[in-house]
Write a structure and sequence with these properties.
The chain is mainly α. The protein has a single domain, classed as Arc Repressor Mutant, subunit A. The chain is built from 6 helices and 2 strands. Strands 1-2 form a two-stranded antiparallel ribbon. The longest helix has 23 residues.
Length: 144
């Protein structure tokens, strides 16, 4: 049986592209903000928009398992981006709140993210972007 090498498939290209973009984005975030990762940045953005997100919902949005998200939240609490307290409505859950330090980060991120995206998508037309998005959604759908 003969198959293409994994490095010669579209899936390798997709994964290597994602990794290259994440490395690029992290470097640019680190130039302006200290002690925050790209995943922590995404978590803050989601929590700013949807403050009542549960940890499970946040884990799904970030493609993280619960243990990884718990470690990430602990780091964000220790670095002063989040405050964690008991949820009065459901004592089994924690309430996550963005601190004033975290709010400053949330205010800074849109400019960085917009710039990162515009550089990464340089030379790609809206038509190409829409086509790529459609194709990736088809692949995702085929796999579910």
């Amino acid at each position: 049986m003969e198959i293409s090498l994994p490095s010669e498939t579209i899936f390798h290209t997709i994964e290597s592209t994602i990794k290259a973009y994440r490395k690029f984005a992290q470097q640019r975030i680190s130039e302006e903000l200290e002690n925050i990762t790209i995943d922590q940045s995404i978590a803050l953005i989601h929590l700013a928009e949807y403050p009542d997100l549960t940890q499970n919902e946040l884990a799904d949005l970030l493609f993280k398992d619960n243990a990884s998200l718990t470690r990430m939240i602990n780091t964000m609490v220790n670095n002063g981006f989040l405050k964690r307290s008991m949820n009065e409505e459901d004592r089994r859950r924690f309430k996550l709140e963005i601190t004033p330090h975290g709010e400053k980060v949330v205010e800074t991120l849109p400019k960085i993210i917009t710039n990162n995206r515009s550089i990464a998508l340089l030379g790609i037309t809206d038509t190409e972007l829409n086509q790529l998005n459609s194709l990736l959604r088809k692949i995702k759908s085929n796999c579910q």
